[in-house]
UniProtKB/TrEMBL annotation:
SUPFAM superfamilies assigned to the protein according to its UniProt record, in alphabetical order: PDZ domain-like (SSF50156), Trypsin-like serine proteases (SSF50494)
Signal sequence bounds: none
Feature: compositional bias, Polar residues: 392-402
Protein name (Swiss-Prot/TrEMBL): PDZ domain-containing protein
Organism the protein comes from: Digitaria exilis
Pfam entry (one): Trypsin_2
Region Disordered, residue ranges: 392-412
Gene3D superfamilies: 2.30.42.10, 2.40.10.120
Amino acid sequence: MEEEEELEVTSAPVATAKEHASPAISYRFPTPRIASSSRVRRPAVPNVHESSRKLISRGVTRFVLGVSSYIDGKLLKRCSGFVIDWDENTRSGTVFTSAHLICSTSPWDEWSGSGQHEYAPDAEVRVHLGEEIAVRGQLVYYNRHYGFALIGVHMDQPPALLACFSSEEVRYAQDVFVLGRDGRFLLQLSNGKVNCRGPSLYTRYHYMYITGGEVLECCTGGPVVDFDGVVMGMKSYDGFVSCSIINKCLHLWRRFGCIHRLHLGLKLSAIKSLGISAQTEKIYLMSDIVDTGLIVEDVSAGSVAEKHGVGKGDIVKSLNGRCVDTTAALESMLLGMCVDRFDNGHDLDSSMDVTLGMFFTSGSVHGTMKFTVNASNDVEVFARRTYNVSDDQDLSTSSSMSPDEASEDDIW
């Protein structure tokens, strides 16, 4: 056996007087040995520049087009889009883009019934196939809730490549590119990571977000792709809509010509978007919940959730037995319920039973709540609650029931 290498450390004398000086003391420590197998291996950092060049060389950017809209000959919006379908018989393609293209007025609160988006479906739409090539497009469909539009366009030649939506879920911290075209049909490309932050209380909760490079407004409606060029979503004016939701929307539209969804009447935020904070610890100490669940930020007046006692500050833990950790995941699950039910032959306007696993903060109790929700093709409008305040009443009084006041049919 080889002798261990020794390291000699000699301490300096500590006495202040010659007669009290102590002899030097020697310590011997074995030199630590690190096995080669225990070395820390860090994952390879993706090469952004190399990956962006591959997108171009593989022809991925060729399905990215420019789209613009006009009212009375005046430019309304300039966005981007991408080809998702091609019909050989009619020589026409389908361009997926943002409904922002035909939006004339955008409210600051998307949930407000008095300030809804105003759209101009009769606006002239042009699809830019090249730097000097623009053809008239036809608005086929647009969805006000999810904010996307489908444009039909005649093309002499089939597209070199059709966009392919991923069948996998978008991952947080995933590296992605946002692609688009500017007014001169020049490619615009930015790189970033999918962020775990959630939408604000004034935007729909199906949005996801990207942090990183600046994204120009002309890229709105363009594809969000991974480093292999697979489409992970569509860039919206605020954030992006994931492929998981888009795939379900297209399935419903292609089969039924409309997109029905369930209206819960809740504004929610994800616990995981709080990060490490005092609020996260408080929630954990109170409910033993740390990384999943959605906080109820507000409840729509007159909604089924309000009638069943759901109040601000409560936590939605699960939907039909499945844990929920983000608002986008909840939206995808609700859409999935509609897809499964309608594919099995049920009417589009039929109601569905929903089971929510809950933590009620007012009583600090866990429970399960089951109620019936209607599917609707309309935009979900959030109704604000009103309070009749007298001299004997406090402004903080809530109109919702506590879990202790609910009937046996409500629970639990």
